[in-house]
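Progress note, sequence design subtask.
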């Protein structure tokens, strides 16, 4: 993997990430294919929307169908029919968020599967082994993600464990040609711990760096401030990935603070709840005011859903539980997020990112308040 910054405007930057499965232009948004598929969308949908990099989840694929089966069938790219770049996360967040019964110790984490209740164990070494079997272009070490709020003592203890696991993961990876290994910067909402995390993680010399433990309940100003702090301390010549974030406004704020990469389930999850993202803010189709609305979902969008159907028809599909609704709304939302990062790249290249931000927030903030009441 190679990365170069090709333009910058203040802290915002656009870059070029070269992988074995193609070039990725940053800032980039990764649609989330948790189990090897982006919900309701096929690989050709993703390609048509302009996706360059897709995220798959180590935890879920480890549980089902299993990394050895995927390796036997030629790796995850072939298994899921995606020829672009792939990133896999560490599984640490899922262990924290999905498993009520888990035991975290020095050697790794034991947890009960949400699939069938069976008990499993993941060590830092096994997490790397699983991701190597999957064949992703970018992989991550096992880390511990803490809930918010966490005391300084608890966050410090967790950070030191994550750093020891990071060193073990780096050794297991071995630095051989193949997937890039990103380090994960934890530390909770404590500035001194985040500084410690950056220093110690960078000292291990990873190929890129992820900012973990954000968007877990902390106030937005804290998330933005800590993102700016960490991004500003990370090496300028390597990619920076803000894990699990986020909402369109979060992406714009984070790019302004120097972040290059994002993933989030919102485009497809919110689509399954009847909510779509537009340049004027989210539209919630279950509202009765859209029952006779003959306008496109977003008149400025060129996706298939917006070119072909009215809000009234899309609402009808959703209210009728028609499966087509989930595909069309997901397709639109993925298009919106990918267009958002594409326009941010163009604004940075033209050194006009401040103007882009001002235009975006002047429009987008208008209806986001309305949606928060849903």
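Output:
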């Amino acid at each position: 993997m190679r990365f170069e910054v090709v333009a910058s405007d203040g802290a915002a930057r656009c870059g070029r990430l070269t992988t074995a499965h193609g070039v990725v232009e940053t800032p980039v948004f990764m649609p989330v294919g948790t189990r090897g598929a982006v919900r309701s969308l096929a690989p050709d949908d993703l390609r048509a929307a302009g996706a360059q990099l897709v995220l798959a989840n180590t935890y879920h694929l480890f549980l089902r169908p299993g990394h050895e089966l995927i390796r036997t069938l030629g790796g995850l790219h072939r298994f899921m029919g995606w020829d672009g770049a792939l990133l896999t996360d560490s599984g640490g967040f899922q262990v924290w968020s999905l498993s009520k019964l888990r035991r975290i110790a020095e050697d790794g984490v034991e947890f009960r599967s949400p699939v069938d209740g069976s008990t499993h164990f993941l060590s830092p070494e096994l997490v790397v082994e699983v991701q190597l079997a999957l064949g992703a272009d970018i992989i991550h070490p096992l880390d511990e993600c803490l809930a918010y709020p966490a005391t300084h003592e608890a966050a410090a203890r967790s950070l030191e464990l994550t750093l020891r696991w990071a060193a073990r993961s780096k050794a297991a990876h071995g630095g051989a040609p193949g997937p890039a290994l990103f380090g994960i910067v934890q530390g909770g909402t404590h500035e001194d711990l985040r500084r410690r995390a950056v220093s110690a993680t960078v000292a291990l010399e990873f190929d890129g760096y992820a900012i973990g433990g954000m968007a877990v309940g902390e106030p937005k100003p804290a998330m933005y401030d800590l993102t700016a702090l960490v991004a500003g301390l990370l090496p300028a010549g390597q990619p920076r990935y803000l894990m699990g974030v986020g909402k369109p406004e979060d992406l714009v704020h984070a790019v302004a603070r120097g972040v290059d990469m994002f993933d989030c389930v919102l485009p497809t999850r919110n689509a399954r709840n009847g909510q779509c993202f537009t340049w004027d803010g989210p539209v919630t189709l279950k509202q009765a005011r859209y029952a006779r609305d003959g306008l496109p979902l977003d008149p400025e969008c060129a996706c298939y859903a917006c070119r072909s159907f009215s809000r009234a028809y899309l609402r009808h599909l959703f209210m009728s539980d028609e499966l087509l609704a989930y595909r069309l709304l997901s397709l639109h939302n993925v298009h919106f997020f990918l267009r958002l990062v594409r326009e941010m790249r163009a604004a940075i290249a033209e050194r006009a990112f401040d103007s882009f931000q001002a235009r975006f927030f002047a429009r987008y903030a208008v209806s986001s308040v309305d949606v928060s009441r849903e």
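Residues 323-349 form the longest helix (27 residues). Work on this subtask will continue into the next period as scheduled.
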